[in-house]
Amino acid sequence: MSIAASHPGPLLGRAAEVGLLVSLLDGIGTGGGALVLHGEPGIGKSRLLSIAAELARERGFAVLSTTGVQSEAHLAFAGLHQLLRPLRLHSAGLPAGQRAVLDAAFGLSEERAPERFQIAMAVLDLLGEVATEAPLLILAEDAQWLDRPTTDVLAFVARRLQSDPIVLLAAVREGYPSLLVDAGRRPRPGCSCWSPRTATTSASATSSTRPVWWPGHCWDLSCSSRPPMPRSLISTSTASTSATR
Asked: Which domains does the chain have, with CATH numbers?
C-alpha cells in the first residue's frame, strides 16, 4: 500500500499504536522524535504510516515520504532523492556549500560525492529550514530496501530531532537487516520481545512492541505484550521512538 493511500476504515487492534502516533504529533511543540515500526508483512505497518500521514495533515504538518524498492537498493541516495525531490525550491535557500553537497550526492554536478557526514548535515539543515514554516512528518516505507547511504542519513537525522518540530516514522519488515532497527535496542521489563542489547536511556515504553533507540523505541508489532502507554513518553520525548509493524 502506498503511504499516501487512504486507509479503509478503522485499524483494528492497534489503538495503542495509533495513540502513540497521535501523542508524537500532538507533542511536537516540545520537540521532535523518531519511531520505527518493525514486524512481519501484513501486520499493519503501512496502515499505521498512512494513518500517521492523515493525522499529520489534519494538524497542519507538511509530509515527506520515501519508499524502499529492491531494484534501487544498490543506487546510492536513491531513497533520499525521492524524499527531498519536493523540496527543490527550498534547497535554493541553503548556503551555497550545502547546495553543492546535495547536488554532488544526487549526481547533479561534476563534483564527487562528499563525505556522508556533510551530506547528512546538509539534509538536516534543509529539513530544519522546511520545518520553520510548518511541522514536518517524514515517512520511510519498506525501509529495509532503502539504499545504505539513505539509511545512514536518516539514522543521523533521527538522532538529532529533539530541537526541531520534525517526526520521522520508518517501517521495517521483519527478517531483513536494517540500521534503523539495529542501531540500538533497549529492553522493556516484562516484554518477551526484548533484545539482549541495551541503550543508555531507560525506556518506559509502551505497547506491544520491541523498544529500540533514539533514545526511544523500535516497536515490534508482532509482540503480544501490551502495557498501557504513558503519555509522559512524549513529554520527555526529545525522544525518538521506534515502533514495529
From this structure: 15-72+136-235 (3.40.50)
